Amino acid sequence: MKLKLQYIWFFLLIVAFPNEITADDSIPFKYYGHIYFQSAINDTIPCQLIFDTGGNNLCCIDSVFFAHSKWHTRNIQKANIGGGAGRLTVPLIYEDTQIKQGASNVPYPYIPVIRLRDILDCHADGLVGIQGLHHRPYEINFEHQYFKFNTELPKDLSSWQRVLVRCHKQRIFLYLSVKIGDKTIKGWYLMDTGSGGTIDFTAHTTSTYHLDSIPRKKRITDITNFGVGSKEQEYFVDIKADQILLLGNDTIKNCTVSYLPEGVGAFSKQEWLGVVGNGIWSDYNIIVDEERGYLYLKRFNKEENSDVKGYDYGFRNRTDICDGWIVSSLVRDGDARKSGIEIGDTIVAINHKPVKRLTWDEEWEIDDTPTQEIELRGKNGHAKRIFLKAKNYWKDEEANHPTYTKIKVKENSQQVFSKQIPAGDYSGISYLGNNRYAVVDDKASPDGFSIFHINIDSISGTIQNIELEAIKTSGRPNRDGEGIAYCKIRNSIFISGEKDNVIKEYDLNGQLSGNNVFIPDSIKQRLDSNRGLESLSWNENTQRLWTATEAEDCRMIEYDSNLRLINVWKYKVDQATSAKNYVNGVSEICALNDGRLLVLEREVMIPEKKIGAWAECKLYEARPINRQLEKHLLTKWKTKMNITNHSFANYEGMCLGPKLVDGGQVLLLVTDSQHRYKGMLKDWFKTIIVYI
User: Fold this and answer.
1) 294 three-state secondary structure
2) C-alpha to C-alpha distance for 462 and 417, rounded to whole angstroms
């Protein structure tokens, strides 16, 4: 993909002096996602600046450019500035400085020095806002790539569309309506030529309009240095908007827009719903008339770009400080990430051409190549060679509408092996191969897991025998282990603890490796010590680790084999039928080879005197088509505790086992009997045969 060109927005704690550009200036520019034009500092230092309508009245200079320039100053102070990634303190050149814009020199009383190239690329020496442009119309002509300051309005405006704007605090706002599914997001948006995107919604807008819940395809991208500020890593979500309606009659259809669920700074709670960037503006010629409160727009590019192919990584050209381009963004679960590219890698050559020798045009058009052979240097200094093919993410019909075969199941009766295994609180199970299983007990002390040897009939799928083979411990206190998953590629076992809500990695002898799985803050806030990370599953085919929260407002979290977060999915748990003395939620998940999940929901009702207790279990197929997993019931069963029926079984663990001769695969379930509570409960086991 074309690099998600960052959002450059500033607010300085001091206000710039107003100055006007007085000449009738036309300035040519180059458009490469941002507007670059040639300038000079104090008539002596040539530079290339970005024109940024979201940059207020400021001019900022890149720190590397400043360090290597002939600009000498003694008056450097400190200033606190804000941007798309929060706030930070930067050096401030506190002296009158002249910045050339066309035939005029525009004075600035101070210049912040920022790490602009870390956000953009080595082509940017600095940027300027709209200083001196507030009182006369000015034109931004993307078609022929020039500015014209102090322009006159055309006599014939019939071919131009007039859009009402509001100018406030040196910013320009316009009123838009964006429709995504059944959501219409209408209100004031910030005009920002410092953004290379189309429309980017703030975190507050994302939350208010529940954009994460819209049931359509989305793409999550991790990115470093999204904007000015202290937040070094961000992620954004792309989604297709049905239409964007500018005030007037111009409608943009089928446009990809983005939202930032955890945005800070300019993307937190602001007076704007989102920002409108050059992904929109570059199709128009624009006249800005701030004084009268209008934009005049003439659309010259009316092509829909829905068929464009590209790549799912982004980079920044930093050949000013190294020999390549730095990988700065990756789509989660994308081809680039799967192939081994990591954020921070250095691209040194593409299709056998050193990137340092490519022209700016060749760099900008690199996404247009149908295939790429990429030579990289990893952060560890090791060389990599990656092959990628350009794709259209939104036109990938298989990804948009996956075709799944129907799942059929056959239940076997539950079984008990009280004489073969000790009483336990068995809450999770994972298949190791060769009839061996790792089983976690949520009350076992010390922390660890057991190895069971379980023989299963290859025709019926019923359990023939169970033996305790070994107990593996870490020597640490019990963490209320709930979920367990064997990861063959890492030759290790993961256990989720509900007491601390941490997923830890163990070797096959039960010793801790020191690796913990990252849990997002948005998930941590949902957890408590008895309704936390109940489930865990690894699938060798998809190379995915899954966990899930137990409570009704369930989230299922997906990781790759390097324990990097891929997705967070919403899952709707069935409403409980009992009003009191009950527990319900997701007790276990099992990841399938085609990306689907088997989800075990259970509702347990236990009266004070225990007699009359029951447990109902439901096995669902969950399809990761939308952000909220679609589920389909496969089977359900109910067990009871009364005078004549002691079948009560609270199933908490589940994993896939061996395949049978008829092609079905065993799904093995275990119960938490509370250590065979008062002799009333049993350590039940159950098999369900799954046919896909």
Assistant:
1) strand
2) 13
Residue whose tokens read 């000449």 = 23
Cα–Cα distance measured from residue 396 to residue 133, given in angstroms and rounded to the nearest whole number? 45
C-alpha distances (whole Å) from 671 to each of 235, 411, 501, 647 are: 39, 16, 21, 11
DSSP type of residue 689: E
Tokens matching residue 414: 């539950």
Residues 16, 99: Cα–Cα separation, whole Å: 14
Map out the domains of the chain with their CATH numbers.
Answer: 24-148 (2.40.70.10), 161-299 (2.40.70.10), 313-400 (2.30.42.10), 408-691 (2.115.10.20)
Q: For the chain, first and last CA: distance in Å?
A: 35
Cβ contacts of residue 442 below 8 Å, gap of 6+? 425, 427, 478, 480, 481, 482, 498, 672
Is residue 19 within 8 A of residue 132, CB to CB? The reply is yes
Give the type of residue at 523: I
* pLDDT tens profile 156-165: 888 899 988 9
**374-404 pLDDT, tens digit each:** 999 998 899 999 999 999 888 754 444 556 7
pLDDT higher than 70, residue 273: yes
Per-residue pLDDT at 485: 97
Residue 139 tokens read as: 């034109």
Tell me, letter by letter, the H, E, C secondary structure of 131-144: CCCCCCCEEEECCC
| CA separation for the pair 296, 235 (Å, rounded) | 33
Q: Are 21 and 96 in contact (CB under 8 A)?
A: no
Sign, CA dihedral 58-64-69-71, equals positive
As given in the structure block, the two tokens for residue 537 are 């599953």
